[in-house]
Amino acid sequence: MRLASAAVLESLAAFSLCGTLAADSGRPMLTQLANSETKSQNSVDFALGEVTVTRAALPGEGWKISIPFRPTTGGTLLTNWTALQMDLRDAAGHLASTSPIKHITNGWVIYNGWGRLDPTVGWRLKADFVMDSDFGSTNLYVVRVPTAPDGQVVTNLAGVPIRIFFPGGNMLAVRAQPEHPETAVTLVRVSDEDGNDIDEGTGAWELHSFKKAIRLPRAGEAVVVTLAIQNSLHLEFRFNPTVVKQGTANN
Questions:
Q1: Burial level of 79, CB count in 10 A (0-12/13-18/19+)?
Q2: Does the structure show a pLDDT above 60 at 245?
Q3: For an engineered disulfide with 237, which of 59, 91, 125, 165 has Cβ 3.0 to 4.6 Å away?
Q4: What is the pTM of this model?
Q5: Is 206 inside a domain boundary?
Q6: Residues 225, 237 within the same domain
């Protein structure tokens, strides 16, 4: 199922998993990856950097894991890509916990993880990548949702059935029903009817749904939700991590 506009499709372009680039800081951030592969469409490259592990500060956490990605087009870093629903395991199947929060260091988009994985064996990372800003206009939809106790909207956006409702408290929830494997539902903005931002910052995100804390408007007023319906990219990486001693890690 293809839902992206021409602008989004252009920014999907080519994806390569490679091991040939050095970090801006001087320390090599990429090593040759076992079972590396290249996926190409026009001019965008997606590189997985050297995944490093250091001993976690708290007993029982095992390893702190640094996962660097570099999405580029024409050599320019693209910072509007987010990795969702990362599944990071070692060869024995031990699963790491990963954070959806990203930060940018020396031209790399970095994610952190924690877990008791074995760094002496190969690891596998599965991730779904989506854009988090700069959407094409044909991917954006604005929906007005009443805030009555049973207020909800069930609609169809770009062929995707969407339910928007209030599960309790000050939470707003959006869910694709049923889920479409290649499609992501992304919150762009939530406001009151006067256009004031009512996003409270906290929430939980998945590929096909999310919950978001909001500041509820006055009784009888509606919440205005702007959504992006976009393609998601499912990629799989296989590599061997690098153990780094405390004090020598890049981030």
A1: middle
A2: yes
A3: 125
A4: 0.75
A5: yes
A6: no
Residue 248 falls inside a structural domain: no
The alpha carbon of residue 65 and the mean position of all alpha carbons in its chain are separated, in whole angstroms, by 17
The verdict on whether omega for the bond into residue 178 sits within 30 degrees of 0, i.e. cis, is yes
Number of helices followed by number of strands (H, E) in the chain:
1, 21
pLDDT tens figures, 41-81: 335 677 888 999 998 777 777 899 999 988 888 878 889 98
Q: In this structure, are residues 147 and 198 in contact, taking their beta carbons and an 8 Å threshold? A: no
Q: For the segment 166-192, what is each residue's pLDDT rounded down to a tens digit? A: 998 889 999 998 777 778 999 999 999
Q: Please say whether the beta carbons of 71 and 81 come within 8 A.
A: yes
Indicate the number of domains in the chain. 2
Same domain for 108 and 147, yes or no, is no
Distance CA 154, CA 161 (A): 7
249 found inside a domain: no
Same domain, residue pair 22 and 95: yes
What CATH number does residue 36 fall under?
Answer: 2.60.40
| Apex 226 CA angle, 224 and 230, nearest 5 | 155
Q: Are strands 52-55 and 242-243 parallel, antiparallel or unpaired?
A: parallel
- Domain with 153, as residue range(s), is 137-231
**One domain for residues 122 and 145:** no
**Would strands 44-48 and 52-55 be described as parallel, antiparallel, or unpaired?**
unpaired
Q: In terms of domains, do 18 and 108 share one? A: yes
